[in-house]
Amino acid sequence: MATNSYVDENGQDDGYTKDGTVDLKGNPILTSKTGGWKACSFIVVYEVFERMAYYGISSNLVIYLTEKLHQGTVKSSNNVTNWVGTIWMTPILGAYFADAFLGRYWTFLIACAIYFLGMSLLTLAVSIHGLKPPPCANPTAADCKKASTLQLAVFFGALYTLAIGTGGTKPNISTIGADQFDEFHPKEKAQKLSFFNWWMFSIFLGTLFANSVLVYIQDNVGWSLGYGLPTLGLAISIMIFLAGSSFYRHKKPRGSPFTRMARVIIAALRKWKVQVPSDPKELYELDLGEYTKNGKVRIDSTPSLRFLNKACVKVDTTDPWMLCSVTQVEETKQMLRMIPILIATFIPSTMIAQINTLFVKQGTTLKRDVGNFSIPPASLGAFVTISLLVSVVLYDRFFMKIAKRLTNNPRGINILQRMGIGMAFHIVIMLVASFVEKHRLSVAKDHGLVENGKQVPLSIFILLPQFILMGTADAFLEVAKIEFFYDQAPEGMKSLGTSYSMTSLGIGNFISSFLLSTVSHITKKHGNHRGWILNNLNASHLDYYYAFFAILNLLNFIFFLFVSKFYVYKAEISDSLAVLRQELEIGSRHTG
Questions:
Q1: Which of 122, 140, 10, 19 minimizes the C-alpha distance to 68?
Q2: Residue-wise DSSP of 524-559
Q3: Helix (H) or strand (E) holding 373
Q4: Angle value at C-alpha 234, between 473 and 214, nearest 5 degrees
Q5: Cα distance between residue 499 and residue 87, in whole Å
Q6: For the chain, how big is the Rg over CA atoms in Å?
């Protein structure tokens, strides 16, 4: 139910935002002078440069660890996924500080300073000769000198400093972007429905540059320039963001979301014997004025997760650990309801981790020369980007318009349906990857290349299908995932909700590390072969490993269908979506 409106009591728009956004000083702001795509243009350009910086490091990191720090296949791959996993887990802390204390803007800027410090240290680590082991013709050979403790400490210290910085930037920048559209204004609500499509488009523009130009520079010119350019790009992106400060709308921090949720759970447990009244009006709730004067939204009681309603049953105390408002209980329910969906995204996130690890390692075993040009293996990641960019445009400009006419849904299809299509793609991706790898191994065997591990006489482009399909899957699943966790989170917990989508990627990377180590160990110890994943990929069996992933994805897809069937979407806080749906119905009647 809407508890606010984009018009005043006389039916006129007074020009101010109605979603509780303010300027940096906490004053009400005019819709015409702030927010919208005008403000988002600075945020989106920031994201293009920042993603160029991040993927400029992560895309080729496994190659640096192998060739410069002389680490093996399993160790280098796990170091990448452990670091990327940390990158995507730290946003929980960034979201906490933003929602509870500092607000999104200031949390973001402080994190940017830490991020830039990490990038600068990393550039020094790859540039100073004393911080790298001496070069080696065969980096995986037993007599090749490994990196010292000091060298590893400096390099990984810089990487994890960078990870702390991204923990404050990632959950807040996309949330700041989405905050620029007023939920209570139908026109801005319609723009917001497309925001996350174009947000992912901007992310992958930066990624495309990193996976093509920066990866080529790192492999063929030098790592100092290859890391120095992303560092410069990050500095430029921060300045661009600051330039747009006067146009931004801000949401005030509303206290610790973890404390608010903990109070609900503990209050419900302490009153576990109390009966919940059948009439929701008998439950404890603050006056509507208490919410509207603070720019907050009151939420009506729902029957789902009914046990938590015990927290708002009236008792002879106002202790916040014994009595919570209906809105506080419903906010907690909204965050808890998303957890089964979050769990269902872990396995697809594990598949994404293969792009910059095993997929890249496969590329090193194939012919990469096109004339006098040698293709860097990590640059195939550019095809993920190109595929996603094309898919997002087609989705937003064509598929969405057709689906809207058929369903009268302003989104075209609902968010979970879009996620499900992406998950189905992941099953196909790993089957394709398994068949391609089986063919590569067959050619290696036919040419006697199994034992020596030399280059297989096949073009690196045989790997294109798995990269292209991954981009198409991301256009469905990853875009929908960010939108889902932002959209379904309560108004006061948007940063925390957005961090759910990043936590998914983090846990997916840790699962990838666990599975790679476990499968490698088990197959070496108990298998009929020397192992599925060896330093010599020609003697490995990545085809079996990818087939195993296809089965995992199938089982996960079944789990997703089950939990999504029982998921209850949160009620809209405004009537904007209903207005848009009504316009679609009128339009379809006229065209019919």
A1: 140
A2: HHHSSSS-SS-SSGGGS-HHHHHHHHHHHHHHHHHH
A3: strand 373-374
A4: 60
A5: 11
A6: 26
Q: Following DSSP, what letter does each residue of 454-486 receive, concatenated?
A: PPEEEEGGGGHHHHHHHHHHHHHHHHHHHHHHH
pLDDT digits (tens, 9 = 90+) for 320-379: 999 999 999 999 999 999 999 999 999 999 999 998 889 988 998 999 888 888 888 888
Encoded tokens for 564: 């999504």
Measure the CA–CA gap between 493 and 503, rounded to whole angstroms: 15
Query: What are residue 287's phi and psi, to 5 degrees?
Result: -65, 150
Which DSSP category does 107 fall into? Answer: H
- The β-bridge partners of 250 are 22
What is the arithmetic mean of pLDDT over 130-145?
76
Residue type, 230: P
3-state secondary structure of 143: coil
Tokens of 200: 């992912």
In the block, tokens 């009595």 appear at 323
Q: Which of 170, 168, 173 is nearest to 96 (CA)?
A: 168
Q: Return the structure tokens found at 435.
A: 């068949």
Buried (b) or exposed (e) across 208-243, using 16+ Cβ within 10 A? bbbbbbbbbbbbeeebeebbbbbbebbbebbebbee
User: Up-side HSE of residue 422: CA atoms within 13 Å toward CB?
Assistant: 28
- CA–CA separation, 118 and 122 (whole Å): 6
Half-sphere exposure of 578 (CA within 13 A, CB side): 9
Instruction: Indicate the pTM of the whole model.
Output: 0.79
Q: What single-letter amino acid sits at 15?
A: G
- Show the beta-strand stretches assigned E in 11-163: none
